[in-house]
Design brief:
25% strand, four-stranded parallel β-sheet, alpha/beta, GMP Synthetase, Chain A, domain 3, globular, Luciferase, domain 3, nine-stranded mixed β-sheet, binds adenosine monophosphate, 26 strands, binds malonyl-coenzyme A
């Protein structure tokens, strides 16, 4: 069997000098490539010693740290399935994930051990470890006793490497199953498409300031750096000023649009600060044309916007170098990054835009975006019907995004057919928030809509009616939502209204609410 373990491929790209620095943290700690190799071996040996069944899930809800990164690498090495979870998830959300995924191991922050271990043990989990962002916790203590040598478990490209939960339109999260082959093919394509520099070419230096529990920070950023043997300047938390201070020592930055707007608000962002940079990449949410333009004016750099999903990793990208597959009016390879577009389908990815009947539309026409490729996931964990619903009979994955492709091949996303709010790069499904609101005492019914926001791009606003004779206070209602849902899902504002607007069919008119509250956060 050819070994397609993703770790084997990442390891093969480590630079020859294993003692050179792989990760430098904002606390001044340096981790060499040998440290990554040894720490992930010790953790992989610890996992192996637990004698877990094949394809066991390792659920991880910990604050960002380099040790959490080595735990991810260790899980790949051991051939087990990594299940990253946002640190903002609350007890009810965690109970759902644990119940649905049935992990064999849960790793959590030491401060959360009390409540989370209870949920885990009740859910039948045999092993609960702790890992703090300051190298505390039982996981590292146990791993210390294991060898620094470990041979990656051979895996086929279809074997599962990770499950990434993504919220569903019905409010139930679905686990997107990603294989070693899905992740490696995408990483390899991006390695070439974004021109990552290898050690022989003088290497890139990546500023890593994204969370590592979602596709963007965990796969796109980390695989990009590791697969080119590039050093990472590592921030456990995004701090715009500190990131700007690091720019002169870096060449690549990846962020969500909110990170770009926050950096633009800093006086220190200048052409001089960005002189050494090669590439600024944005994704996970729409980059506003104003941000694209302001960034170019202030820094002299054109942000490269790309588009992806948990189910597929990266799908499209604006060109980094000239893309000979797409030519301009003069027949020249396209090298232009166009603001407002997400660029071209990546090599190996097929993308089409279809109408309501599923027939491909003409270029320039708007429709649903469907994709195919080696990066497209294996289906939703234990949800065969959901998986079947999201694929066409001939194997195209329905992204739920609405867009068009122009005559030069640029893809533009104009909206979503799924009722989804993207806030600062995090997805919030109104259905999930509405179901929590509707269960609160005194609430009759609710609607959550996304409205423009200067910092997060879009935020949720809740509008609800009270049961007869009940008087509801918005602050009290939101406090109750906050106790149940991750903080980024909590609506930023709420309104009690006598009734919700409805159409002739009796369906709530969310577009009317969106229009009504559109300017709620506008600055005059
Ligand atoms: C924080 N808050 C948010 C929020 N982030 N609310 C809505 N949306 C968000 N994204 C809340 C906090 O809980 C707090 O609420 C208040 O807003 C202020 O928080 P903050 O301190 O200003 O936020 P901060 O911690 O600085 O976080 C902002 C951020 C973060 C932009 C750094 O949101 C972030 O890291 N976003 C990146 C998300 C990401 O990686 N997405 C990739 C998904 S993968 P309160 O009330 O508690 O005080 C994907 C596929 C692809 O989409 O294509 O990449
Ligand atoms: P997630 O489920 O968290 O992986 O989020 C995926 C969704 O983020 C996609 O379906 C898009 O709606 C959105 N998205 C990602 N990148 C972009 C982008 N560059 N522009 C607009 N939307 C994006």
């Amino acid at each position: 069997m050819t070994d397609s373990n993703l770790y084997t491929a990442l390891r093969a790209a480590f630079p020859p000098d294993l003692d050179s620095v792989a990760v430098e943290t904002d606390e001044g700690l340096h981790y060499s490539w040998r440290d990554l190799e040894h720490a992930s071996a010790m953790l992989a040996n610890l996992l192996k010693s637990l004698e877990l069944p094949p394809a066991s899930r390792i659920a991880v809800q910990v604050d960002k740290s380099v040790e959490a990164l080595t735990l991810y690498l260790a899980t790949l090495r051991a051939g087990l399935v990594f299940l990253p979870l946002n640190t903002a998830y609350q007890a009810a959300e965690m109970a759902y994930f644990i119940g649905n995924a049935e992990p064999a191991v849960v790793v959590c922050a030491p401060a959360h051990f009390g409540w989370l271990s209870k949920i885990a043990f009740q859910g039948g989990v045999r092993h609960v470890f702790t890992l703090g962002d300051d190298r505390t916790g039982s996981l590292l203590q146990r791993a210390m006793h294991h060898s620094v040598h470990h041979l990656p478990a051979p895996r086929t490209s279809d074997d599962l490497a990770a499950i990434v939960y993504t919220s569903g339109t019905t409010g139930r999260s679905k686990g997107a199953m990603l294989s070693h082959g899905n992740l490696l093919s995408n990483a390899a394509v991006l390695h070439t498409y974004w021109g990552w520099r290898t050690p022989a070419q003088g290497n890139d230096v990546l500023i890593h300031a994204l969370p590592i529990f979602h596709v963007h920070g965990l796969f796109v950023a980390i695989h990009g750096a590791l697969l080119s043997g590039s050093r990472m300047l590592w921030f456990n938390r995004f701090n715009p000023k500190a990131v700007i201070d690091c720019l002169p020592r870096a060449t690549v930055f990846m962020g969500v649009p909110t990170m770009y707007t926050r950096m633009l608000a800093e006086a220190g962002l200048s052409r001089a600060a960005c002189q050494h940079m090669r590439l600024f990449i944005s994704g996970s949410a729409p980059l506003l044309p104003d941000t694209f333009k302001a960034w170019a004016q202030r820094t002299g750099h054109t942000i490269l916007e790309r588009y992806g999903m948990s189910e597929t990793a990266m799908l499209t990208s604006n060109p980094c170098l000239a893309d000979s597959r797409y030519t301009d009016a003069d027949g020249q390879p396209q090298a232009q990054r166009r603001g407002g577009t997400v660029g071209f389908p990546l090599p190996g990815v097929s993308l089409r835009v279809v109408d309501e009947r599923g027939s491909p539309v003409e270029s320039g026409e708007i429709g649903g975006i469907q994709v195919k490729g080696p990066n497209v996931f294996q289906g939703y964990w234990r949800m065969p019907e959901k998986t079947a619903e999201e694929f066409t009979p001939d194997g195209w994955f329905k992204t739920g995004d609405v867009g068009c492709v122009d005559e030069h091949g640029y893809v533009t996303i104009v909206g979503r057919s799924k009722d989804l709010i993207i806030s600062g790069g995090y997805n919030v499904y109104p259905a999930e928030v509405e179901s929590v609101l509707n269960d609160l005492p005194g609430v009759a019914e609710s609607a959550v809509v996304g409205v423009p926001h200067p910092d997060f791009g879009e935020v949720g606003v809740a509008v609800f009616t009270a049961q007869p004779g009940v008087s509801l206070q918005c602050d009290a209602v939101l406090a109750q939502v906050r106790a149940v849902l991750a903080n980024f899902k909590v609506p930023k504002r709420c309104f009690v209204v006598p009734e919700l607007p409805r159409n002739a069919m009796g369906k709530v008119q969310k577009n009317v609410l969106r229009d009504h509250y559109r300017t709620l956060f506008s600055t005059p």
